[in-house]
Amino acid sequence: MSRKQDIIDAATDLFSQNGYHATSTHQVAKLAEVSEGIIFYYFKTKEDILLEIFYDSFDTFLESLQRIMDEAPTGLDALRAWVGIHFEAIDSRAKNILLLVRDFPASLANEDSPHRENILGRVAKLHQFLVKIIKRGQKDGSIGSCDPEPTALVLRSLLIGYTRVAMLENPHPPEFSKALWGFCRRALNPNPSQA
Amino acid sequence: MSRKQDIIDAATDLFSQNGYHATSTHQVAKLAEVSEGIIFYYFKTKEDILLEIFYDSFDTFLESLQRIMDEAPTGLDALRAWVGIHFEAIDSRAKNILLLVRDFPASLANEDSPHRENILGRVAKLHQFLVKIIKRGQKDGSIGSCDPEPTALVLRSLLIGYTRVAMLENPHPPEFSKALWGFCRRALNPNPSQA
DNA sequence: CAAAAAGCTGAGTGATTACTCAATCAATAC
DNA sequence: GTATTGATTGAGTAATCACTCAGCTTTTTG
Q1: Does B160 touch chain A (CB under 8 A)?
Q2: Is B194 a member of any domain?
Q3: CB A150 to CB B178 under 8 A?
Q4: What's B184's domain CATH number?
């Protein structure tokens, strides 16, 4: 394994466990068993380590999503699989996801952050995937009629919030994930109810 | 206004704008037009300022929720009003909420944080409010049958996620908030659909 | 009014820490 | 075998920043 990967691994461990700010580059170097200097040979700044972890994780996530879309028979199935990725991350207490949930927002909120564009670009890509999935579901009859754009945003919000809550507050028993999916299914049900 | 409140106001401004870690106590003192020393006369540590802001905001939130429950005619109406509080916070770009959304998670994630109990206690209170609202809705027929505990968690997750997304990414146009509420209403519909 | 208490100041401090750099080592090229 | 390039080291540095404290001012109390 490359030195660079060692650094990323150690940083992911420490950042997710103790938080980005509470972790020093000294600690990262120690855990990765490299000198502190080399961190700054591979990364311009400490923040760049965080960003690289984020971009890598997100891009991997987008790739899985693409695979899911190709394999799922219906739009609703694709959505279920997308939701499932989140559950898996929660169950395995995936460090990179925990890291995102804990420490990411700060740099995003600043409207003048130089990373905002890169980040929002990836988020937009995910959003478009979801919109596609919803439209597909509406075509194949597995998802009811609704405006795909806002619905995609709602779904994204729900899963972000749920992942956050589940990872920060407590483990999530099966009935919670079942309830979440049931909630979505009812909201997206193609067969209109009698109001 | 008291000096202490001046400090809280300045801290809320700066923390929400630039982030907790990127803000120094020196800056807070300057904006509040007080000496740096007095910050530590009123607060034991910098973190205590953040916690006080959080506790105040959360307690105010819980009070509004109580009022809402007393006034709303049905469970579903109470839920709608609860959702509405979030929309108002987003629309007004409420600083204390932005602050929570941005900087809070870190101290929560550590299982051994001394604040974890206080925080989770308040969260549990909110959760119980929601459970009560759902049960009430099921009794008065405005909400369909579902397990109240997990459903409350799902609703809480959804609103946390939505507030986060709306505040960090972009303004939220009316059709988004409408879509969110429509999503909830369909998921909670008392009239079962034909599967 | 005197004394005590509370409120307030801002220069100072000690510890931390992201980042640098001159020097060494390893590998590749010629 | 020598030169060049890239990889790696770790001691050093400059800056930051949360927090302290001795003393001043204002308010309260008896």
Answers
A1: yes
A2: no
A3: yes
A4: 1.10.357.10
